[in-house]
Specification:
Blueprint (H helix, E strand, L loop, with lengths): L1 H32 L2 H15 L3 H18 L8 H17 L12 H17 L9 H36 L3 H32 L1
Helix pairs in contact: 1-2, 1-3, 2-3, 2-5, 2-6, 4-6, 5-6
Length: 206
């Protein structure tokens, strides 16, 4: 009896998870296509969070939704690959927001937030508006990075974070990644030279 109840509870939970996945996919597609009031709201909220890469966030939610439907269980949101993606997201939103910090000697947190909000609002009202923003996350994290490292220092830190995110996602060390890249480049060069030799032989035979 207890086993049967446990199975029923598991099945019921699986249905809820699957319905959540369907809802996530639906909202994401509506947001990407900007369909109706709901679509505009979803797009506006995603833009508020991450600025010009709002579509990336919505696509990520679609993948989460697909996982929920297929697996009928919540994913581990803090596994290595996702942590690497979160780190990469931080890099992108901060980089998108660097234009707000051109005058390093005249940076104020409230003005940064206000400028970010004005641009986001302008884009939400008119999608043709050229938005160069990392959203509220880009504003907060960008301001923090700039205060700690200045503009050039922030760029260096972001490049290092990109390398770190790749290491976390792939699970390979930096040395392994370099060796792999050199090996692929060597193979590619070898194939190119081999192709060149074949062409030369063909010309001689003709």
């Amino acid at each position: 009896m207890a086993k049967k109840k446990k199975q029923e509870a598991k099945k019921e939970n699986g249905i809820k998870v699957e319905l959540t996945g369907i809802l996530l996919i639906l909202l994401s597609i509506i947001g990407i296509a900007r369909l109706g009031i709901v679509g505009k709201f979803v797009q506006a909220f995603a833009t508020f969070l991450v600025g010009e890469i709002y579509n990336v966030l919505l696509l990520f939610l679609i993948f989460v939704g697909l996982y929920l439907i297929i697996k009928r269980k919540q994913p581990n949101y803090f596994n290595n690959k996702l942590l690497g993606l979160y780190l990469l997201l931080i890099v992108v939103v901060v980089w998108c927001h660097l234009d707000y910090f051109k005058d390093i000697n005249n940076i104020h947190f409230t003005e940064t937030l206000k400028g970010s909000w004005d641009d986001i609002y302008a884009f939400v009202e008119n999608p043709a508006y050229n938005l160069n923003s990392g959203g509220i996350l880009g504003a907060i994290l960008g301001f923090t990075f700039i205060k700690l490292f200045d503009i050039e220092g922030t760029k260096v830190v972001l490049l290092v974070l990109i390398i770190c995110s790749i290491i976390i996602i792939t699970g390979k060390s930096l040395i392994d990644l370099i060796k792999e890249a050199l090996s692929k480049a060597k193979i590619k060069r070898s194939k190119k030279e081999e192709h060149k030799d074949k062409l030369e032989i063909t010309k001689v035979e003709e």
